[in-house]
Write a structure and sequence with these properties.
With 350 residues, the protein is an alpha/beta fold. The chain has a domain of 131 residues: TIM Barrel, CATH 3.20.20. The protein contains 15 helices and nine strands. A seven-stranded parallel β-sheet has the order 4-5-6-7-8-1-9. A two-stranded antiparallel sheet has the order 2-3. Helix 10 links the parallel strand 4 and strand 5. Helix 9 runs parallel beside helix 10. The longest helix has 27 residues. The protein is globular. The C terminus is likely disordered.
């Protein structure tokens, strides 16, 4: 039986700014009519460029997508100022929790009384009435580690070492906020809580196994237990954390960064769906033949028959078309391609 191998490609906002003049300024997120028109334009352009690879759509339906991105959607609830640029993802003002008192006074925000959720609710109600609730994509959530780093910056790791009660207070508050936001939007969109959650973890690679297991695994388990499973990401080299990932309850899938030992990952994480990331900076700068060698190395390192997805996330504005095509062409040599395209990140990444 031919092995099925997924290929997932996600382009950064700058790709569309440079190639098509698309602007991702504040209006893109606050004016959903504009956002819908922009997204339709992008889908058509992608179909013209990569339609044979399964990307884009020649006749896309209007899909109202709400939110700045999962990480920003939640951090902004704690009064972190949202910043946008025409060619990048939204982000928040970093390090607004400067003192011990700032953290100890944290409370879980009330969704229906707190911006930007109040804006999202208004958008959802308006565009559900126009397009139907089934068409509207509600705002997402992201990882508690990434949010904590946004709000506390590198002082979070000092807290973990010297003031662990502060780190745990912050992570406690963020975890409960994520639960509340996800539950609220699931019920509003579907009438019930959906199964499994993407819990982020992109910055996990900078953690030691000891830090990961003491400060992160407990919160990932809370989320996984609450939603019946979780999906995680560790965007950098993560071989040192493979055993730690086994401590997470009902881990469904895991994104692993370039340089992670996939053969070891298969042995340690038996039965978990793996998504192997390719370095977007490298893909933008090397020749197609070098891309082919990188993909072959990845595929031959994971010589199992289990499901694997090759992921190019946040492909930059300078990524050559031929390098994107080479990823697909190389994967076809090893199995049948299952294409999974993500236009830009909505809090979870590609």
């Amino acid at each position: 039986m031919t092995r099925q191998i997924g290929v997932r490609v996600g382009f950064c906002e700058g790709y569309f700014m440079k190639n098509y003049g698309v602007k991702f300024d504040e209006g893109y997120y606050t004016d959903l009519n504009r956002r819908i028109k922009t997204d339709i334009f992008i889908q058509r352009k992608l179909y013209e460029r990569f339609g044979d690879l399964g990307m884009g759509d020649p006749n896309p339906e209007p899909i109202p997508v709400i939110g700045f991105g999962g990480q920003v959607n939640v951090c902004a609830m704690f009064s972190a100022r949202v910043k946008v640029t025409e060619d990048g993802s939204p982000w928040v003002e970093k390090g607004i929790l400067k003192t011990e008192e700032d953290i100890l006074n944290l409370k879980v925000p009330k969704i229906e009384e707190t911006w930007p959720q109040t804006m999202f609710i208004e958008q959802f109600d308006k565009y559900s009435a126009i397009y139907g609730v089934e068409k509207v994509v509600p705002p997402g959530v992201h990882g508690v580690l990434e949010m904590a780093l946004d709000l506390r910056k590198e002082e979070l790791f000092v807290d973990m070492r010297l003031r662990p009660y502060l780190a745990k207070k912050l992570l406690d508050t963020l975890t409960q906020t994520v639960i509340n936001v996800r539950t609220f939007w699931d019920k509003k969109k579907f009438g019930r809580v959906q199964n499994s959650i993407f819990a982020g973890g992109c910055s996990s690679t900078i953690c030691s196994p000891q830090v990961y297991e003491e400060f992160l695994v407990p919160y990932y388990n809370i989320l996984s237990d609450k939603f019946g499973g979780c999906h995680l990401c560790s965007c950098g080299k993560s071989s040192h954390l493979l055993e730690s990932f086994t401590r997470i309850n009902n881990l469904r899938s895991l994104h692993l960064g370039r340089g992670t030992n996939l053969k070891k990952a298969r042995k340690v994480l038996n039965g978990i769906e793996l998504k192997a990331r390719i370095d977007p900076g490298r893909i933008a700068s090397v020749t197609p033949e070098q891309v082919r060698k990188d993909v072959i190395k990845l595929l031959e390192e994971d010589d199992s028959r289990d499901k694997l997805t090759v992921v190019l996330a946040n492909a930059s504005a300078d990524t050559p078309d031929e390098n994107v095509r080479m990823i697909f062409d190389t994967v076809k040599e090893y199995g049948s391609v299952v294409s999974d395209f993500c236009r830009i990140r909505y809090g979870g990444g590609a």
